[in-house]
Amino acid sequence: MNLTPHSPFSSKASQLLSWGHWFTFANIGLVLIIALAYLAADAAPSSVVGWVYMIVTWVSHTSFITFCAFVLTVFPLSLIFPYPRHIRGMAALIATFGISVLCLDAFVYYQHGYHLSFQSLSEIMSLLISILDNMSMLTIILIFLGFIAIFGFELVVGNHAWRHLDKLKSYKFPKYATAFLVTCFATSHLMHVWADANNYFDVTKQDNVLPLSYPTTAKTLLARHELLDLTEYEQARTVRLENATSHFQVPSNLQYCEFDAPAVDIFVLDSISNSASQLSNKDLFSYPHVLVPTNPKDHYFNLIYGLPAYYRNTITEQKLSPIWNSKNTLSVTSDNMFGYFNEPTQDSKVRFHFTSELPDFSDSSTYIIIEHPMGNEIVTQTTMYTNLPYFSDHKGLMQGTDIIYTLLDKHFNCGQLASQTMIGNVSGSSELNQGVNYSQGVLITYKKDRIILVNHDGRHKQISAKEGFPIEQKMDIPFLVQSIKLLKRFTTKAPNQ
């Protein structure tokens, strides 16, 4: 085969290579726009350093994966099959497929908090099919038109770059753009090395945001050059939950408020299955995604105290009333575990009833009805019924701690007291939809649809909340560290530590 500079094959291959660079630049711009969905899915950085890292990583990483896609697909085709018209058509199809997969991954991450993976692809596709079944015909048509628009964009860009290739070659823009992208790439990795070494979580918490993102870590790099004390590093990163429930620090400077709203009766039933038909006939809102521990004591503690069961042993052994409770606002009946509480009175505003029977419903009363489900897992999901409107707008998961937190914030207008004394979320107010709990020695965290369970010995698993399938992807260490900090918010060290 003649590969001299003047051969037709060499000339076409050189032109296609030059064309491919411009085709890739155009797609980098499109990918950058799509990648904004990943940035919008999580909380914004809280520092200037975090913002700088987010921007340079967004620019460099999305450009890098787009360029790699070109090198692995269009570039070898240009060498093997150097026919411009056919290459442009195949490149448009390949790029459309790649952009569509990226859009799908961005949708999954925005909605559920995890990326597509080969290990759980079939289960994720089943989840998406179920979502598609519930979509309106208009939405399906818009998705199809979006796919056609992407393909049209690729054809237009490819043909325009080929027809104006000589003019484009005279531009100096690619040199400056390439230098800028390489600088961003190096900057993002250096910033991550520094942040990982110094436990700067405003940077490291962004590890799992973009797809195929595995930035360089400080642990291996600095240890290789003997610049890092591995013992100190491991102590800073290790999840320490042992002896966690023995020290509870009561917050100071609490802002108590008056509970002026009507009383709320919360019924915790052994089982709702026998009463489901009766509940369906009532004018009650039902919410089926309440994530609760299967351990009944932990579940009850979450509901009453608005705290993870991480603190249950200390508080119940000392028979401490919930910090938010004042002037006998709270009353509990029919459960020996909380026998130190008052029985319901006319003045009680939050009344818990642990029973096996439904209440006698009346139009003037407000109710929350939830069961304690049994199971072999650490956590499971149960259904809550209520005639309070505050829970109707919530999407995603909810925990038992969120129920009493929402009551104080929205029903009794005591939001400041709730934030000072509880660990939970106000129903419907958190777009991130994440939380933390603890039961039977297991750390329980969730973020959107992803549930993470971590044992005290470091073993862990990630599962989908809606479908229950295991999620095989990189563990989100910064998110776990932030969750542990939140969990230990009311913990103080022992005097001898």
Provide an overview of this structure:
This protein is 47% helix and 13% strand. The protein has 497 residues and is an alpha/beta fold. It has two domains: 8-224, no CATH class; 244-487, no CATH class. It has a seven-stranded mixed β-sheet. Helix 8 crosses helix 10. The protein is elongated and about 90 Å long.
SSE diagram, text form:
Layout: H1 8-41, H2 48-72, H3 74-80, H4 84-112, H5 121-133, H6 137-163, H7 165-169, H8 173-197, H9 201-204, H10 218-224, H11 230-237, E1 264-269, H12 276-280, E2 285-293, H13 296-305, H14 312-317, E3 330-333, E4 350-355, E5 366-371, E6 379-386, E7 398-399, H15 400-411, H16 415-421, E8 434-439, E9 442-447, E10 450-455, E11 460-464, H17 477-487
Parallel strand pairs: 1-4, 1-5, 2-7, 3-4
Antiparallel strand pairs: 2-6, 5-6, 8-9, 9-10, 10-11
Helix pairs in contact: 1-2, 1-3, 1-4, 1-6, 2-8, 4-6, 8-10, 13-15, 15-16
